[in-house]
Amino acid sequence: MTRERFICEVRVCQGRLRRFLISLCGDAALADDLAQEALVRAYVTSDRFSGNFKAWVFRIAYNCFIDHLRRQPEPAVSIEAPQALHVQDTGGADGAFLHEELRLALAQIPEKERTAIALHYFEDLSVKEIATIMQIPSGTVKYYLSVGRDHLRERIRQ
Protein backbone atom coordinates (compact mmCIF):
# COMPACT_ATOMS: atom_id res chain seq x y z
CA MET A 1 0.00 0.00 0.00
CA THR A 2 1.38 3.39 -0.92
CA ARG A 3 1.75 6.19 1.61
CA GLU A 4 -0.82 8.28 -0.27
CA ARG A 5 -3.41 5.50 -0.27
CA PHE A 6 -2.82 4.87 3.43
CA ILE A 7 -3.38 8.55 4.22
CA CYS A 8 -6.55 8.60 2.10
CA GLU A 9 -7.93 5.50 3.83
CA VAL A 10 -7.11 6.93 7.28
CA ARG A 11 -8.92 10.18 6.49
CA VAL A 12 -12.05 8.21 5.65
CA CYS A 13 -12.14 6.17 8.87
CA GLN A 14 -10.29 8.15 11.54
CA GLY A 15 -13.38 9.83 13.03
CA ARG A 16 -15.21 6.53 13.32
CA LEU A 17 -12.11 4.87 14.77
CA ARG A 18 -11.81 7.54 17.45
CA ARG A 19 -15.53 7.33 18.29
CA PHE A 20 -15.24 3.54 18.59
CA LEU A 21 -12.30 3.83 20.97
CA ILE A 22 -14.07 6.47 23.06
CA SER A 23 -17.07 4.17 23.40
CA LEU A 24 -14.74 1.43 24.67
CA CYS A 25 -12.60 3.37 27.11
CA GLY A 26 -14.77 6.40 27.95
CA ASP A 27 -11.83 8.80 27.79
CA ALA A 28 -11.21 11.07 24.78
CA ALA A 29 -7.52 11.59 25.55
CA LEU A 30 -6.90 7.86 25.95
CA ALA A 31 -8.90 7.16 22.79
CA ASP A 32 -6.69 9.61 20.88
CA ASP A 33 -3.56 7.88 22.22
CA LEU A 34 -4.91 4.44 21.29
CA ALA A 35 -5.95 5.63 17.82
CA GLN A 36 -2.50 7.10 17.24
CA GLU A 37 -0.84 3.88 18.40
CA ALA A 38 -3.13 1.84 16.13
CA LEU A 39 -2.45 4.01 13.10
CA VAL A 40 1.30 3.86 13.67
CA ARG A 41 1.12 0.06 13.93
CA ALA A 42 -1.00 -0.03 10.78
CA TYR A 43 1.38 2.18 8.84
CA VAL A 44 4.41 0.14 9.85
CA THR A 45 2.76 -3.04 8.53
CA SER A 46 0.85 -1.47 5.63
CA ASP A 47 3.17 -3.03 3.05
CA ARG A 48 1.67 -6.43 3.98
CA PHE A 49 -1.96 -5.23 3.98
CA SER A 50 -4.63 -6.55 1.63
CA GLY A 51 -8.37 -6.54 2.15
CA ASN A 52 -10.85 -4.40 4.08
CA PHE A 53 -8.87 -1.43 5.41
CA LYS A 54 -11.50 -0.31 7.93
CA ALA A 55 -11.85 -3.76 9.50
CA TRP A 56 -8.06 -4.12 9.59
CA VAL A 57 -7.49 -0.78 11.33
CA PHE A 58 -10.38 -1.35 13.77
CA ARG A 59 -8.84 -4.74 14.64
CA ILE A 60 -5.49 -3.11 15.33
CA ALA A 61 -7.21 -0.42 17.46
CA TYR A 62 -9.14 -3.09 19.37
CA ASN A 63 -5.85 -4.90 20.05
CA CYS A 64 -4.33 -1.63 21.30
CA PHE A 65 -7.29 -1.23 23.65
CA ILE A 66 -6.91 -4.82 24.93
CA ASP A 67 -3.17 -4.26 25.43
CA HIS A 68 -3.97 -1.12 27.41
CA LEU A 69 -6.43 -3.04 29.62
CA ARG A 70 -3.83 -5.69 30.31
CA ARG A 71 -1.37 -3.06 31.49
CA GLN A 72 -3.92 -1.50 33.87
CA PRO A 73 -4.34 -2.80 37.41
CA GLU A 74 -7.91 -1.42 37.48
CA PRO A 75 -10.61 -1.21 34.79
CA ALA A 76 -9.85 1.56 32.28
CA VAL A 77 -13.47 2.56 31.71
CA SER A 78 -14.54 5.82 33.26
CA ILE A 79 -18.25 6.35 33.69
CA GLU A 80 -17.56 10.03 34.33
CA ALA A 81 -16.51 10.85 30.74
CA PRO A 82 -19.32 12.88 29.15
CA GLN A 83 -17.95 12.40 25.62
CA ALA A 84 -18.06 8.60 25.74
CA LEU A 85 -20.75 8.17 23.10
CA HIS A 86 -20.66 11.44 21.15
CA VAL A 87 -24.43 11.26 20.76
CA GLN A 88 -25.98 14.52 19.72
CA ASP A 89 -28.76 15.87 21.89
CA THR A 90 -32.09 15.71 20.06
CA GLY A 91 -34.51 16.41 22.87
CA GLY A 92 -33.05 18.98 25.24
CA ALA A 93 -32.46 17.98 28.84
CA ASP A 94 -34.66 14.88 28.60
CA GLY A 95 -32.70 13.62 25.58
CA ALA A 96 -29.39 14.23 27.32
CA PHE A 97 -30.62 12.33 30.37
CA LEU A 98 -31.55 9.31 28.22
CA HIS A 99 -28.11 9.28 26.59
CA GLU A 100 -26.45 9.60 29.99
CA GLU A 101 -28.26 6.48 31.17
CA LEU A 102 -27.09 4.60 28.10
CA ARG A 103 -23.49 5.79 28.53
CA LEU A 104 -23.45 4.73 32.17
CA ALA A 105 -25.02 1.37 31.37
CA LEU A 106 -22.48 0.72 28.60
CA ALA A 107 -19.62 1.40 30.97
CA GLN A 108 -20.93 -1.32 33.30
CA ILE A 109 -21.21 -4.23 30.86
CA PRO A 110 -18.34 -6.58 29.97
CA GLU A 111 -15.76 -5.32 27.48
CA LYS A 112 -16.55 -7.83 24.71
CA GLU A 113 -20.27 -7.04 24.82
CA ARG A 114 -19.52 -3.29 24.86
CA THR A 115 -17.19 -3.71 21.88
CA ALA A 116 -19.74 -5.67 19.83
CA ILE A 117 -22.50 -3.17 20.63
CA ALA A 118 -20.30 -0.16 19.83
CA LEU A 119 -19.20 -1.62 16.50
CA HIS A 120 -22.68 -2.72 15.50
CA TYR A 121 -24.84 0.17 16.65
CA PHE A 122 -22.46 3.14 16.66
CA GLU A 123 -20.28 2.20 13.67
CA ASP A 124 -22.90 0.32 11.61
CA LEU A 125 -20.65 -2.68 11.03
CA SER A 126 -22.04 -6.05 10.07
CA VAL A 127 -21.74 -9.13 12.24
CA LYS A 128 -19.17 -10.50 9.78
CA GLU A 129 -17.03 -7.33 10.03
CA ILE A 130 -17.25 -7.39 13.83
CA ALA A 131 -16.21 -11.04 13.84
CA THR A 132 -13.16 -10.11 11.78
CA ILE A 133 -12.24 -7.23 14.08
CA MET A 134 -12.73 -9.18 17.30
CA GLN A 135 -11.34 -12.41 15.78
CA ILE A 136 -14.26 -14.50 16.95
CA PRO A 137 -16.95 -16.51 15.11
CA SER A 138 -20.05 -14.69 13.82
CA GLY A 139 -22.22 -16.71 16.19
CA THR A 140 -20.24 -15.41 19.13
CA VAL A 141 -20.73 -11.82 17.92
CA LYS A 142 -24.48 -12.45 17.77
CA TYR A 143 -24.32 -13.86 21.30
CA TYR A 144 -22.42 -10.79 22.60
CA LEU A 145 -24.93 -8.48 20.92
CA SER A 146 -27.89 -10.35 22.39
CA VAL A 147 -26.47 -10.67 25.90
CA GLY A 148 -25.14 -7.11 25.76
CA ARG A 149 -28.59 -5.76 24.88
CA ASP A 150 -30.06 -7.73 27.79
CA HIS A 151 -27.41 -6.39 30.16
CA LEU A 152 -28.01 -2.83 28.96
CA ARG A 153 -31.75 -3.26 29.42
CA GLU A 154 -31.19 -4.51 32.99
CA ARG A 155 -28.80 -1.67 33.84
CA ILE A 156 -31.13 1.01 32.44
CA ARG A 157 -34.13 -0.36 34.32
CA GLN A 158 -32.22 -0.25 37.63
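That was protein one. Protein two is written in the same sequence-then-structure order:
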Amino acid sequence: MKELEILKILMENAKAEPDKIGVMLGMDPEEVKQIIKKLEDDKVIVKYMTLIDWEKTSCDKVQALIDVRVLPERGVGFDRVAQRIAMFPEVRSVYLMSGGYDLSVRVEGKSLKEVANFVSEKLAPLEHVQSTTTHFILKMYKKDGVILGDKEEDKRQVMIP
Protein backbone atom coordinates (compact mmCIF):
# COMPACT_ATOMS: atom_id res chain seq x y z
CA MET A 1 0.00 0.00 0.00
CA LYS A 2 1.53 3.32 -1.11
CA GLU A 3 0.23 5.27 1.89
CA LEU A 4 1.95 2.94 4.35
CA GLU A 5 5.26 3.15 2.50
CA ILE A 6 5.07 6.95 2.49
CA LEU A 7 4.20 6.97 6.20
CA LYS A 8 7.17 4.72 7.00
CA ILE A 9 9.53 7.07 5.16
CA LEU A 10 8.09 10.17 6.86
CA MET A 11 8.31 8.47 10.25
CA GLU A 12 12.04 7.97 9.75
CA ASN A 13 12.56 11.46 8.26
CA ALA A 14 9.78 14.04 8.54
CA LYS A 15 11.78 16.31 6.22
CA ALA A 16 11.76 13.82 3.33
CA GLU A 17 10.63 15.68 0.24
CA PRO A 18 8.00 14.30 -2.15
CA ASP A 19 10.56 14.25 -5.00
CA LYS A 20 12.88 11.96 -3.03
CA ILE A 21 10.01 9.82 -1.74
CA GLY A 22 8.82 9.44 -5.31
CA VAL A 23 12.25 8.22 -6.41
CA MET A 24 12.44 5.78 -3.48
CA LEU A 25 9.02 4.30 -4.25
CA GLY A 26 9.03 4.64 -8.04
CA MET A 27 6.14 7.12 -7.92
CA ASP A 28 5.39 10.47 -9.50
CA PRO A 29 6.18 13.27 -6.97
CA GLU A 30 2.77 14.86 -7.64
CA GLU A 31 1.05 11.62 -6.62
CA VAL A 32 3.18 11.56 -3.45
CA LYS A 33 2.15 15.18 -2.68
CA GLN A 34 -1.54 14.28 -3.15
CA ILE A 35 -1.27 11.24 -0.88
CA ILE A 36 0.52 13.26 1.83
CA LYS A 37 -2.12 16.02 1.59
CA LYS A 38 -4.91 13.45 1.96
CA LEU A 39 -3.15 11.85 4.96
CA GLU A 40 -2.86 15.30 6.57
CA ASP A 41 -6.49 16.18 5.80
CA ASP A 42 -7.69 12.85 7.24
CA LYS A 43 -5.59 13.49 10.39
CA VAL A 44 -3.52 10.34 9.80
CA ILE A 45 -0.48 12.62 9.79
CA VAL A 46 -1.13 14.74 12.85
CA LYS A 47 2.17 16.59 13.31
CA TYR A 48 5.74 16.67 12.04
CA MET A 49 8.22 16.51 14.91
CA THR A 50 11.89 17.01 15.69
CA LEU A 51 13.70 14.71 18.13
CA ILE A 52 16.04 16.70 20.40
CA ASP A 53 18.68 15.34 22.77
CA TRP A 54 17.99 17.82 25.58
CA GLU A 55 21.06 16.71 27.54
CA LYS A 56 23.21 18.41 24.89
CA THR A 57 21.51 21.78 25.43
CA SER A 58 21.60 24.29 28.27
CA CYS A 59 17.88 23.79 28.84
CA ASP A 60 17.01 22.29 32.22
CA LYS A 61 14.16 19.83 31.93
CA VAL A 62 12.79 17.23 34.30
CA GLN A 63 10.65 14.42 32.93
CA ALA A 64 8.59 11.87 34.80
CA LEU A 65 6.34 8.94 34.05
CA ILE A 66 3.33 8.84 36.33
CA ASP A 67 1.24 5.70 36.77
CA VAL A 68 -2.35 6.67 37.56
CA ARG A 69 -5.07 4.41 38.94
CA VAL A 70 -8.48 5.72 37.87
CA LEU A 71 -12.06 4.85 38.72
CA PRO A 72 -13.73 4.50 35.30
CA GLU A 73 -16.90 6.51 34.64
CA ARG A 74 -20.11 4.82 33.55
CA GLY A 75 -20.57 5.04 29.80
CA VAL A 76 -17.18 6.61 29.02
CA GLY A 77 -14.71 4.41 30.90
CA PHE A 78 -11.31 6.09 31.23
CA ASP A 79 -11.70 8.47 28.27
CA ARG A 80 -13.05 11.55 30.06
CA VAL A 81 -10.43 11.59 32.81
CA ALA A 82 -7.63 10.81 30.31
CA GLN A 83 -8.77 13.72 28.12
CA ARG A 84 -8.90 16.00 31.19
CA ILE A 85 -5.35 15.01 32.17
CA ALA A 86 -4.14 15.54 28.58
CA MET A 87 -5.26 19.19 28.75
CA PHE A 88 -2.61 20.18 31.32
CA PRO A 89 0.36 21.95 29.66
CA GLU A 90 2.86 19.89 31.69
CA VAL A 91 1.52 16.67 30.16
CA ARG A 92 3.36 15.43 27.07
CA SER A 93 1.65 12.03 26.64
CA VAL A 94 -1.21 10.00 28.11
CA TYR A 95 -1.67 6.28 27.48
CA LEU A 96 -4.35 3.78 28.56
CA MET A 97 -2.46 0.80 29.95
CA SER A 98 -3.05 -2.77 31.01
CA GLY A 99 -1.69 -4.01 34.33
CA GLY A 100 -1.68 -2.50 37.81
CA TYR A 101 -2.39 1.07 36.69
CA ASP A 102 -4.87 2.44 34.19
CA LEU A 103 -3.06 5.44 32.70
CA SER A 104 0.58 6.28 32.09
CA VAL A 105 1.26 10.01 31.93
CA ARG A 106 4.54 11.57 30.78
CA VAL A 107 5.11 15.08 32.13
CA GLU A 108 7.83 17.72 31.82
CA GLY A 109 8.80 20.50 34.20
CA LYS A 110 11.70 22.79 35.02
CA SER A 111 12.44 21.09 38.35
CA LEU A 112 11.60 18.07 40.50
CA LYS A 113 9.52 20.36 42.68
CA GLU A 114 7.51 21.62 39.71
CA VAL A 115 6.65 18.06 38.66
CA ALA A 116 5.87 17.10 42.27
CA ASN A 117 3.56 20.12 42.59
CA PHE A 118 1.79 19.14 39.38
CA VAL A 119 1.11 15.68 40.80
CA SER A 120 -0.01 16.86 44.24
CA GLU A 121 -1.94 19.98 43.22
CA LYS A 122 -3.39 19.16 39.81
CA LEU A 123 -3.33 15.43 39.03
CA ALA A 124 -4.02 13.64 42.33
CA PRO A 125 -7.00 15.85 43.32
CA LEU A 126 -8.87 15.12 40.06
CA GLU A 127 -12.18 13.34 40.50
CA HIS A 128 -11.86 9.62 39.68
CA VAL A 129 -8.06 9.58 40.27
CA GLN A 130 -7.49 7.01 43.01
CA SER A 131 -3.68 6.91 43.24
CA THR A 132 -0.47 7.88 41.48
CA THR A 133 3.10 6.62 41.37
CA THR A 134 5.77 8.94 39.98
CA HIS A 135 8.97 7.74 38.28
CA PHE A 136 11.48 10.47 37.44
CA ILE A 137 13.44 9.90 34.24
CA LEU A 138 17.13 10.15 35.10
CA LYS A 139 18.62 9.55 31.66
CA MET A 140 17.19 8.75 28.25
CA TYR A 141 19.17 6.26 26.17
CA LYS A 142 16.80 5.75 23.26
CA LYS A 143 13.67 7.55 22.07
CA ASP A 144 11.42 6.82 19.11
CA GLY A 145 13.91 4.27 17.78
CA VAL A 146 16.89 6.65 17.95
CA ILE A 147 19.83 6.05 20.28
CA LEU A 148 20.67 9.29 22.08
CA GLY A 149 24.03 10.55 23.33
CA ASP A 150 27.46 10.10 21.89
CA LYS A 151 28.43 6.62 20.83
CA GLU A 152 30.95 5.18 23.22
CA GLU A 153 34.34 4.77 21.63
CA ASP A 154 35.86 1.29 21.57
CA LYS A 155 38.63 1.38 24.18
CA ARG A 156 39.97 -2.10 23.54
CA GLN A 157 43.63 -2.32 22.62
CA VAL A 158 44.32 -3.22 19.01
CA MET A 159 46.21 -6.49 18.69
CA ILE A 160 48.62 -6.77 15.78
CA PRO A 161 49.72 -10.30 14.82
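The domain at 54-140 is CATH 3.30.70.920 (Alpha-Beta Plaits). Keep this in mind for the problem set.
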